[in-house]
Amino acid sequence: MPDCLFCSIVEGEIPADIVYENEHVLAFKDINPQAPYHALVIPRQHVATVADLETDGMMDELTRAANILARQEGIVEDGYRLVVNCNENGGQAVYHLHMHILGGRAMKWPPG
Ligand code: 5GP
Ligand code: ZN
Question: How far is the CA of 78 from the centre of ligand 2 (A)?
Answer without folding.
Answer: 32
